Amino acid sequence: MLNPDSTQIAQKNAISLRLWCVSLAPFHTHEPEHYPLHYYPHVNRCQQDQLHPWSVWKKHARCIQQAVGPSRYSEFVFSATKWAKFGWTKHVPVIEANIVDFLTGANYAKPPATVHHRLEKNVCTTDGRSVVRKANLVVQPDSESDDFYAQNDHLFRAPDPIRDAVRTFKDRAAARQIHALYAALLGRSTAGDKQQVIKLCCQLPLLAPRMTANVQYFIDVGLWDSLPQGWHNMLQTPRYFPGKRILVSHPHVSPLLRSGAAAREQVLAVDKSLPVDAAPSTAFVTFRATICEPARNAGDECVDTGQRGVSVALESTDGTVQTTQISRKRVLSLNHPHELPRIHEDDDDDVWLEDAIRCNYTDTLVRAKLCEIATALEGCIQRLDFGGDAAECIATQLQAVVCVRSCLDMTTFQRGPHDKLTTNGQHTRDSSRYYGDNVGRFAVHGQGHCHTVSSVMFAFLRPFCTALGIDLRYRGGMSFRPSPTKGACCDRVRNSPETHQWLEYTLRPSGRVFVCDLYYEDGLKRPDGSFLTMPIEQYYRDFAYPHGRLPVFSQKSVTLQRTTDTDFAC
């Protein structure tokens, strides 16, 4: 019961009146003339109330109705046949609805005849389909500008520890506190700082390749604001098409290295005059191969046999072009992107690299370094347009590769203390830098051989390859030169022994192929990125030879990524 001193002021029939919602117990001793006539009473009563049955108390309700008048009186009398067991409990919603109806004049228990339309907006799904998004939660902005939603994004998202950690990490990166964060992770600060940093880094997103295969993930965790333009269409473009340069193994490839400008253009070209042994080891890999349209007439050397092969044009030492047909399997073996071997068969996030180096993408140091790289790449992602000018797209992709390398605090054994370069590529050691088997420690302040730095670069570039349109491969072979500034040290290439390792990558959709050689790049007096973005035509002509075998790390072989239906357009 609400007594007269605690009643609310409400609007009824456009007049401000005092209301009274009553039970009948207080009125059994009162005469009608004693009832307060300035109220609008509303009576809720159960017919089976055993303490106050309606048959007894009905006359008091009529007294109230007589005192205030029928127009000011309302009641809700209901039946509860199981009153002794349940009391009022099953009727609470109906009682509340009637009280609200009495107070407001609106029956909220009855669905409205019409509802407002939800906010609709044309958007694009992660698989590229155009749909109409209907908002479940609509916040009326002060203006019609879409900036309201961008500025108040937090209103539309539930609390998310991962996004909060990313926001904190980005703030630290903007304040140039990344090195202090790594120092804390490595135990070079107070215990309290270390615990706070570990807690932060454990909440950073897992940027393992299996997670970043869906590029929308970068947006969901708050690292990027948008996808590269034309990204969905890029995924549907072929990897192998007429005009694309590929690596091919062929028994007539000349292994000889000749001096002179004219002779350099014959390096790894086809020479039919060479004697050919039947052993597979006598076949050499050449970069002087280009996919061409299938030959259709019997006069050509490459005749369409009906098998699923690829027609390839090979450059010869005499300046002519020889056309042959190569199986798709052989094309894939030398040109398809690589996947690192798993340490445990049921764990995709813990992988082997060269020299028993392991990369565990769940490690806090690796999480932090990958978030640093993702933050640094944000500008490239915003500029990248796969459907725009081809040259600008390639330039942006190459800038992204250089950007990833710039985030890795790592040198080779060509540099001593204070990163001083040795003379003629001699080996030395900087004892302040890490050398072991932890890829995260290498990336923070490490030093290694060509295979070490190539492994670390592969581990940290791989999670971003899908977003950047990069097909990444780990290469091994022999180098012509002991350092980028020295001349050739041999007169022919060999498939073994392996003396050098580097990375090779293809850019989509252009199909252009480049080399990323961190060892040669670090051997330059002033590294300029040239060996991180060198076309294979130049690198395999002047610096190194790829034997084409899949690498084996800790007795487990690197594998090829799965093919898709759109890979071949030839």
- Overall, the morphology is elongated
- Give the low-pLDDT segments: 1-30, 297-306
Which structural class is indicated by helix and strand composition? alpha+beta
What's the story with the biggest beta sheet?
5 strands, antiparallel
Mean pLDDT: 85
Rounded Rg? 38 Å
Helix content: 25-40%
The oligomerization state is single chain
Distance between the termini: 85 Å
The percent range for strand residues is 15-25%
Total of helices: 19
Strand order of the largest sheet: 20-19-18-17-21
By DSSP, the count of extended strands is: 24
Structural descriptors:
four-stranded mixed β-sheet, 30% helix, five-stranded antiparallel β-sheet, disordered N terminus, 19 helices, 20% strand, 570 residues, alpha+beta
Describe the overall structure.
The protein is of the alpha+beta class. It has a 5-stranded antiparallel sheet, with helices on both faces. Mean pLDDT is 85; it is low at 1-30 and 297-306. Helix content is 30%, strand content 20%.
Layout of SSEs?
Layout: E1 9-12, E2 15-22, E3 40-46, H1 54-68, E4 74-78, H2 83-86, H3 92-104, E5 120-124, E6 130-134, H4 147-151, H5 161-174, H6 178-185, H7 191-202, H8 209-212, H9 216-220, H10 231-235, E7 245-250, H11 261-264, E8 284-291, E9 309-315, E10 321-327, H12 328-335, E11 338-339, E12 342-344, E13 347-352, E14 358-360, H13 364-383, H14 390-406, E15 410-412, H15 439-445, E16 446-448, H16 450-461, H17 465-468, E17 470-479, E18 500-507, E19 513-516, H18 518-522, E20 534-535, H19 536-542, E21 544-546, E22 552-553, E23 556-557, E24 559-560
Parallel strand pairs: 2-3, 3-4, 15-16
Antiparallel strand pairs: 1-2, 5-6, 7-8, 8-9, 9-10, 11-24, 12-13, 13-14, 17-18, 17-21, 18-19, 19-20, 22-23
